[in-house]
Amino acid sequence: MVVAATGFFDGVHLGHRAVLNSLVETARQTGGRSLVLTFWPHPRAVLQQDAQRFRLLTSLEEKKEMVLGLGVDDFEVIHFTRDLSAVSAGVFFREYLRDRYRVNILVAGYNHRLGSDAVSDTAPMHQEARNTGLEVVRVPEYVSSQGEHISSTKIRAALSAGSVETANRWLGYPYRLHGVVVEGNRIGRTLGFPTANMQLYEPLKQLPANGVYKVEAGVNGTWYKGMMNIGFRPTVADHLEHTIETHIFDFNDDIYGLDMTVRILQHHRHEIAFPSLDALKEQLKKDKQDLL
Questions:
Q1: Are 216 and 250 members of one domain?
Q2: What is this structure's pTM?
Q3: Are 133 and 8 part of one and the same domain?
């Protein structure tokens, strides 16, 4: 018995988790194995002209880690192509769900669509499933305790506006960035605020708006408090290089070349240009005092 859910699940937010929790519970009740079938790359990145502007909330590895962390047994990736986009719901049920992955039950969100014919209404999807010998379990829309309807699109918009607290509430966890620590110009060190410059592993990762954020930085399995600046460093740089710099409080280890994960907890202030390095240093002292 295989119980599956299909979708992109970008962010694995609270709405997705309602579907995935139902998936795990249905598999438990039927004695089956739970399976998530996701697509990569994102269909929009393949099909739409604005693909270069599209951004992701989670890399494929992050998504896999979170999905399996919810108790799902298996995670499989279907490579999304233009040819796949032309496959109808009926063909997808037969050739992918039934024949390739041996699915018996499909767990689907309230508005989940399948196939080039975008079958989403309950009756047509159930009919396609019956034609293929499958059962469909529909999961009602998740609405937060504050009456909020959640989507990956809304979360991206919140991050773009710097509303990281709202994004975190909809995600159900602190938004995070993951990358490798690279060499910078070391100006922060001369100010008494050394920073770890991060190069992201996922180039399409959605960044919050430019500004200063309260964060937790994970290095070598330990989490530290810190503050992060995203932006162009207008006080110290005369060229438009976008950087992600994290000052880890009370930390002086050499971590160049190491993995680092940053959990973004709170927006603190916008990025601004200061009249001098001394003025910037004073503001950094105040930022640290405020965020400790």
A1: yes
A2: 0.91
A3: yes
